Amino acid sequence: MADRAMQRIKDKGIYIILRDVLSSPAVEKMFVQTFGTSDFIGWPSEDNMYIVPYVWWPSFIFVLFQIKPVAAPSVVTTVTVKETVTQTTTETQAAQTVTETVTVPTMDVTSVAGAGVVALVVGVVVGWLVASRKKS
Question: Higher confidence at residue 21 or residue 116?
Fold first, then answer.
């Protein structure tokens, strides 16, 4: 008896839901993915859609295997500083221009990534040591 009563309640609930529903979506919504080519090239595009490029799908790793970095800028930046020195004498005025080149080193991505990996390893080792001391 309880089974028939439950079946009638379910049937009535489904009838109410189907009767009152206004619309039923039959398609998936559209997502647009945009990628810049200033730093990396080889992204999926309209001309070369080799994989669906949704970043939340596990297959996005194959996109990361395909992209290549754009030629990196040089590591050393040269800055030219010009200053004008004016000398005044009683007879003539002379202007002298002094040009000095200053070389400013910049960090490359490899150094920063390497420092990050070293910091991660040190952090894991320290965490392991702290956890093992608490157990004993």
Answer: 116
